[in-house]
Amino acid sequence: MGSPEEAEVDGLVQVAEAARQVGVDRSTLYRWERRGMVTPLRDYRGWRFYRAEDIERLRKWREPKLVVTGGARGDRLSR
């Protein structure tokens, strides 16, 4: 078995793996948790576990959004 940081329990992943899958640092997940953007499950030790659907939602949220700007023609796209 791997380290506790790598443990998977019933399809849940711990913070290090969740951060890797989302493409952010662990501290970013902690910040998003404080802001109410994600609520991980916790075990009896207080360790955070993230669901696959939470990870997917955060990945989609991080994707760049295209914004149409400039005149009625919308001839300029920016991210």
Chain-wise SSE layout:
Blueprint: E1 8-9, E2 12-14, H1 15-22, H2 26-34, E3 41-42, E4 48-50, H3 52-62, E5 67-69, E6 76-78
Antiparallel strand pairs: 1-2, 2-4, 3-4, 5-6
Q: Taking Cα atoms only, what radius of gyration do you get, to the nearest Å?
A: 17 Å
Sheet with the most strands, sense and barrel status: 4 strands, antiparallel
- Based on Cα principal axes, name the global outline: elongated
State the CATH class: Mainly Alpha
- List the uncertain runs: 1-6
* Domain unit count: 1
The rounded distance between the terminal residues' Cα atoms is: 42 Å
Class by SSE composition: alpha+beta
Descriptive account of the structure:
The chain has 79 residues and is of the alpha+beta class. The chain has helices spanning 15-22, 26-34, 52-62; strands at 8-9, 12-14, 41-42, 48-50, 67-69, 76-78. It has a single domain (4-78), classed as Multidrug-efflux Transporter Regulator, Chain: A, Domain 2 (Orthogonal Bundle). α1 runs parallel beside α3 (52-62). The radius of gyration is 17 Å and the shape is elongated. Mean pLDDT is 82; it is low at 1-6.
Offer a few descriptive terms:
disordered N terminus, Multidrug-efflux Transporter Regulator, Chain: A, Domain 2, 20% strand, alpha+beta, 79 residues, elongated
